[in-house]
Specification:
Largest sheet: none
Structural class: mainly alpha
Strand content: under 5%
Number of strands: 0
Radius of gyration: 32 Å
Oligomer: single chain
Order of helices and strands: HHH
Shape: elongated
Helix content: over 70%
Length: 109
């Protein structure tokens, strides 16, 4: 999740939590607005602190991606799937060849 999406999520969550808290506890519009703004600001600051700490303490090192090895493995699995598909097609052809005989035997038996 990108940092901006994380912050936006917590700001929106803070707004709705603040709105619920303000509507349950206060009657005047100025009180409701101030409580909603305060709680939204609180969630905004907490989100920024969380992102800052995450970025500060996480190590973002380079990861070597062995493209040739993965391509080789994917080609192997692709060839295996093609081979199994041919086997299934051959088995299906064999079964469908005998299917009319089986249908006749069921009708007779």
């Amino acid at each position: 999740m990108r940092e901006s999406n994380f912050i936006a999520f917590w700001v929106v969550s803070g707004f709705f939590i603040g709105l619920m808290a303000a509507l349950m506890g206060f009657d005047g519009p100025s009180e409701i607005l101030s409580v909603v703004l305060f709680i939204t600001l609180f969630f905004y600051l907490i989100a920024h602190i969380s992102v800052a700490l995450f970025v500060r303490f996480m190590e973002f090192g380079k990861v070597y991606f062995e493209k040739e090895e993965y391509d080789r493995k994917l080609d192997f699995f692709y060839n295996q799937l093609l081979q199994r598909e041919k086997e299934v097609d051959a088995n299906y052809a064999y079964i469908s060849k005998d299917e009319p005989d089986v249908q006749d035997m069921k009708k007779d038996g």
